[in-house]
Amino acid sequence: MRRFDQQLDELNNKLKEMGALVEKSIILASEALIHQDVALAKNVIIFEADVEEKEKDIEALCLKLLMQQQPVAKDLRVISAALKMITDMERIGDQAADISEIVVMMNGAPYVQELIHIPQMAIATVKMVTDSIEAYVKKDLKLAKSIIAYDDVVDDLFDKVKFDLIELIRSDNPNSEQAIDLLMVAKFFERIGDHACNIASWVVYSITGKQAKIN
Amino acid sequence: MNKFSIKDVNLWYNDFHALKNINMSIPANEITAFIGPSGCGKSTLIKSLNRMNDLVEGCKITGSILLDGQSIHGNIDVNALRKRVGMVFQKPNPFPMSVYDNIAYGPRTHGIRSRSKLNDIVEKSLYDAAIWDELKDRLKKSALSLSGGQQQRLCIARALSVQPDVLLMDEPTSALDPISTAKIEELVLKLKNSYTIVIVTHNMQQAVRISDNTGFFLLGEIVEYGETQQVFSIPKDKRTEDYITGRFG
Questions:
Q1: With contacts defined as CB-CB under 8 Å, which chain B residues touch A208?
Q2: Which helix (H) or strand (E) element contains residue B227?
Q3: I want to staple B41 with a disulfide (CB 3.0 to 4.6 A). Which of A13, B209, B220, B234 is the partner?
Q4: Residues of A with CB below 8 A from B33's CB?
Q5: ipTM greater than 0.90, yes or no?
Q6: Do A129 and A194 contact (CB within 8 A), yes or no?
Q7: Which residue in A has a C-alpha nearest to residue B236's C-alpha?
Q8: Residue A172 has what pLDDT?
Q9: CA-CA distance, B199 to B167, in Å (whole number)?
Q10: Do residues B128 and B162 make contact, with C-beta atoms less than 8 angstroms apart?
Q11: Average pLDDT of A24-38?
Q12: Pairing of strands B70-71, B59-67
C-alpha cells in the first residue's frame, strides 16, 4: 500500500474515533438530562476537552496531507470533507456539554411536567449522528442522504417542545425559568441535528463531488 | 472560438500507432494542458500542431488538423505555419550567440533588416517574456551565460519575436528550479491574453494552477478532455482518476 493510502487510512480511523467520542457525548448528555444525573453531566463537560484535542489532531493531519501530497480529485474531496466534518463534530461535542451544563445548573430540581418530546429529540439526534458517522465509514451515499431528510423529524419535535413550553409559561409563571432552560436544551438538540446533516452532506460531497442540498 | 480543430487524427511512426482517433478542439486565448504517462502521445500531438513530426522519418498522419478553420496539411507554407505556431522545448536551447541576436534571428529570417525595427522587436519580445528588466543591460552578452530559468524565458521571447498566434510548450519547466518555474507560470498566464497556449506537463499541480482545459492521454488515445477544474476534481473516467491521484497501474 502506498504511504499516502496509509495516511488516508490513518485519517479515516481518527475520524471514526472522533465520531465515536461525540456520539458518546450526546448519549451521556441525554441520559444525564433524562435521569437528572448531575455527576454524569459533569463528566460530559470534562469529556469535551477530548473532543477538541481530537479535532486539533485531525486538523493537523489534514494540513500535513495537503502540504505533502497536494491531493486532487477524490483524495482532495476526502481531506477537505474531513476538515469540514471535524468542525461540525466539535460543535456537537460543545452542544452536548451545553446540555450537560444546564443539567448541572438545574441541580436535580423536579421537572414541572413530564419530558416527552425532548427525549424523542435526543433519540432522533443520536440516531442522526450515529448514522452520519456510519455513512462516512461505509461511504454509504443512500444513508447520508436519508440523514439529511430525517432532519425534518427533529425540527418538528423542536416545534412541539416550543409550543408545549410556551403554553407552560403562559399558564405557570413560577416555572418559567425551567421552561426557558428546557427550550435551550431542545434548541441544542435541534442544532446537533443540523450538524449531523452537515456531516452527511460532506459525506455526499466526498463520494460524488457535489454538495447535497439541505433545507 | 476554437484555434485548433483536431478531427480523427491517427499517427504512425513506421508500424507504431502513436495517436489513435484523436478528436478535440483547442480554444483560442486559453491554456490547454496535455497530461499522461511517458509515451502516451501527448508530445507527438503537440508536435503535430506545427508539423514538427514532418521531420521524423517513417511518420504518417491521417485525419485533419484545422488552424483557424484551415487545414495545416493542405497547400500551406510550413515555415509560415511554424511562424504562427511557435514552440518552446523542455530544455532551454538558446543559440550560441548574443541575447540580442537570439531574439532578432527569427525576424531577420523573415526579412526584417531595419535596425530600429529589430531593436523594437527585441525589446518588446523580452518585455513580453518578462525578462527585459533582467537583460536590458546584457543584450550583447552570450545567451549561454544566462541561468536556466533566464534561458527558458529567452527562448519564449525568441518564440514571441515572430508574433505567433499559438505557443506550444513541451514540459517547459521540467528542467527548472521552483523560482524559475513560478516565473514561467506567471508569464504563461499573462501571455494567454494574446496567445493560445498548449502545454505538455508531467506536473499535475502545474496543470491545475495554470491551465483552463486538460486532456489526459493514455496509450495514444485521449481518455478525457475537459475543463481543468472538472478533470482534477471530478474526473469522469476511472483511468484519469487513477493517474492524477498516483494510483495508476
A1: 234
A2: strand B221-227
A3: B220
A4: none
A5: no
A6: no
A7: A73
A8: 67
A9: 8
A10: no
A11: 95
A12: antiparallel
